[in-house]
Write a structure and sequence with these properties.
Length: 498
């Protein structure tokens, strides 16, 4: 579909007709429709991309964001995370195995032995949002340590000297509402979960108990959490794809900044062939979906679908870490890109992921209204406990994590570490993207689950305004209008009086 016909035959309706120019998420708004959907809880957010997620949310395959902790946490709430392409294959395989071994309801505990130092235990505390370290001996929990327990304690003291031995303990299968009630009555935040042999299974917080009744985990046919992996278009693409599928990856993402190029088509075809060959292998046992991108036009969608893609990743330049548009002038406003690409994909029986440009829950809703099967989020999730970076405290006391773009000099160094010094130096001259950016943790929403709650609340409400209970209905019923910059600004809340 040519750009000039980008608005023809769209499912989304324009309030006053489409404009003669492309649109970002900020440029558009939705108009309420007459609705029979009376509650947010009537809304089903199951993705239409065929991946199997119960939420249309994907964590971008960025090194500073997506790792094992992020993957298992997001999958418990119904989304999926994609591990980056620049991580060694054996390390990715280990991460997949650990995610597959994680419980679908209970958060993985931060474990230490009784002789672990307090300093080491406290350094592990920010790895999870539940704020508790479990002291384990012979597989059984013997105590817990929190920041309060370690206050004013020598960092070289051992945790058995400061741990609390009076901690709430529940067995697997206990009704989450009962756990919530018990924790609330005792004014406690989390319980240790054990099996019938008193061996540690995980941790369940008060919020976790509530979330377990509101969200449905994204799981594979064997009931294990979903996880995806990325493959680049250089090197032994087919070999890496084969290894990742045999390791248990549920999705393969063939990823490069310019997805509409010959090398992408060749690499994608090779990956699709490997996928098809392994569909009957006992260790895979099914046809694994392949995602490819990034593109911003209907022509790009067609070419990648013809090469074997099931889902097309859409977006060039809208990401917070991306400088492509300023460096090259190449890209396209994201709402229009998703709109055109999703229509073409629908005609071909395929789906798209809207990748980039998402900064508020409204943007997720607008991407879904434009026809996306799922929405990929990167930088927004970087400032959370679960992202891969180390937590740092700034001079003003605010906590942050460093993030960087996947075409930045920092990312290029990671991907070219096995090349010669000269080749690496040459590649570094042509960077795009930010190499270091501070992503501050929101004190109100420091965990990725907190952000998911916020996103889902907004998106569910959008569906009720549109009168839709599913993603398909939402894309069909959504009515959008075009607004000025002041119109967008009018909708922003004020956190202080004027």
């Amino acid at each position: 579909m040519a750009y000039g016909n980008a608005w023809d035959n769209r499912r989304v309706r324009f309030l006053s007709g489409p404009p003669p120019y492309d649109l970002t998420y900020n440029d558009v708004f939705m108009v309420p429709n007459r609705s029979a959907v009376t509650s947010r809880m009537q809304v089903d957010l199951t993705s239409t991309d065929g991946i199997g997620t119960t939420l249309p949310l994907v964590v971008a395959n960025m090194t500073a964001i997506s790792g094992r902790r992020m993957a298992e946490t997001v999958a418990r709430r119904g989304g999926i995370a994609i591990l980056p392409q620049d991580i060694p294959t054996d390390v990715v395989a280990q991460a997949i195995a650990r995610v597959k071994a994680s419980h679908t309801v209970y958060d993985t505990a931060v474990r230490v032995s009784p002789d672990t130092t307090v300093g080491e235990a406290m350094s592990l505390l920010p790895k999870r949002a539940h704020g508790m370290v479990v002291v384990v001996e012979d597989g059984r929990p013997v105590g817990t340590v929190s920041e309060v327990d370690s206050a004013q304690v020598d960092r070289f003291a051992q945790v058995h000297e400061v741990m609390s031995t009076e901690f709430p303990r529940v067995t697997t299968g206990t009704d989450p509402i009962a756990v919530f009630d018990e924790l609330s009555s005792r004014h406690l935040e989390a319980a240790v979960v054990v099996d019938d042999q008193d061996r540690l299974v995980g941790v369940l917080t008060r919020k976790g108990a509530v979330r377990s009744t509101l969200y449905t985990p994204a799981v594979d046919p064997r009931g294990r959490l979903l996880i995806g992996t990325a493959v680049g278009i250089n090197g032994d693409v087919a070999g890496r794809a084969r290894a990742l599928l045999l390791a248990g990856s549920d999705v393969l993402v063939v990823d490069t900044a310019h997805g509409h190029q010959e090398k992408m088509v060749e690499s994608l075809a090779a990956v699709a062939q490997v996928r098809d060959e392994l569909a009957d292998d006992p260790s895979v046992g099914r046809r694994i979906p392949v995602v490819a991108g990034n593109v911003v036009s209907g022509d790009g969608v067609r070419d990648l679908v013809d090469a074997g893609a099931d889902v097309i990743k859409v977006g060039v330049g809208p990401g917070a870490m991306c400088t492509t548009r300023m460096m090259t002038g190449v890209g396209r406003p994201q709402f229009s890109a998703v709109l055109e690409c999703s229509e073409t994909a629908r005609e071909l029986g395929k789906a798209v992921w809207a990748d980039g440009g998402v900064r508020h829950p409204r943007d997720v809703a607008l991407a879904l209204a434009a026809g996306a099967g799922s929405v990929m989020i990167g930088s927004w999730f970087a400032g959370t406990y679960e992202s891969t970076g180390n937590l740092v405290t700034a001079a003003d006391g605010r906590m942050y994590k460093e993030s960087f773009g996947m075409a930045s000099a920092r990312a290029v160094r990671n991907r070219t570490r096995e090349q010669s010094g000269y080749e690496r130096a040459r590649a570094a001259l042509f960077e795009e993207g930010i190499s270091s950016s501070r992503m501050y943790l929101d004190p109100e929403r420091p965990g990725v689950e907190d952000l998911i709650d916020q996103i889902v609340a907004g998106v569910r409400s959008s569906f009720t305004y549109a009168g839709a209970s599913t993603l398909t209905e939402f894309a069909e019923r959504a009515t959008v209008g075009v607004q000025s910059a002041s119109g967008y600004d009018e909708g922003r809340p004020l956190h202080a009086s004027w």
